[in-house]
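Let us practice reading a record.
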Amino acid sequence: MDFLTAQEMAKKWGITPRQVQRLIAGGRIPGAKRLGHSWIIPADSEKPLDPRKARKTAVPLYPEFSILPALYLHGGSLTAAVDRCKSEEERTLLEANLAHLRGEPEEVRRLATPLCGEATPPQLRLGSELMRGIAALWLGDALAWKEVMQELTALTVPPFMQREKEFVIAALNAGLHGQNVYPKWLEIGAFTGLSPALFPAARWVYTSILYTKWKEVDLLAVAEPMIAECRREQSDLCEIYLRLIAAAACHDHEQVARAQEHIDEAAALAQPLGLIAPFVEYRHILFSVMDPRLKEKYPEMLSIIKKKMPLFLDHWTRVYNGIWEKPMADELTPREFEACMLAVRGMQINEIANRMGISRNSVKKYLNTAYDKLSVEKRHQLSWFIHP
């Protein structure tokens, strides 16, 4: 009998190697067996049917409207997801999503802007404005970000879509670490008024909001079960973001090994699809734990992230300062920013050194350099510029 590797079978079936591994783990590929550290599969094996499709209860890309279609990549490759789009407009919106996830904000803006006209149906308009707002954030365009928020606020939608509109506005605010700007139902995690198709994204945005309240909540107690639910649904993109948020929470609680596990799992999902945006967006708070993991397993991916992250952080800070009128620091290196963030959170020199895996003297050097760059003299003054 001829056998294929999981990688080869993934290519044959048009899915990711990660999805093949899940099928094997679930016992859904007869004849699959372990060979050393890998799995091999009978070459004539048929791709297992998606049980959701067999029951005819699968959630299509967008049953009621088109928002965040890239969240639903399960069941096939990116190409397959594009092919499932029902119209040219949906295809364009999905391509804009994918351009964002690959760190191409100019392409996002080019694709999304034509879909934001008054004649565009509200369901498509919400997703397009979301993409346009994300592009503005990545490009450092505070005026464009404000314009998107004004357009969304003024947009008239049917009553059954009101929560979806609120959710899109909340997602953009969460991307900019907004505080006290969210609807009450989202702050308490009551998603039932949303379309079920948006539940995975809602978990991610809800957890992002909780991260801004790091002193008040046990984020890990929330994030871990939500990750499990996304894994069950195969909502890969939401799982990637949730794992990075969970990694940050583990890092805060000195659970370094668990933080590394979350980063490994997120990278394993993202790397085959070329999805680098989540790692660019979170690298500044995970620098000391993320870089060593990616350097060991995905050095090419890390190289791309390192190239894109400084410009993204500069642009993100520019929009943050312009929108919230708070002086977020943009002169610091990732190491300096991380040291300052930990200091603002109340850690002492020894604790910061242990957390970052560096010497006490290096911590003092980073903090002193930051003091000079920010023109401050005392540790508590860092909170004017560093908002953990």
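A brief commentary: The first helix runs from residue 6 to 13.
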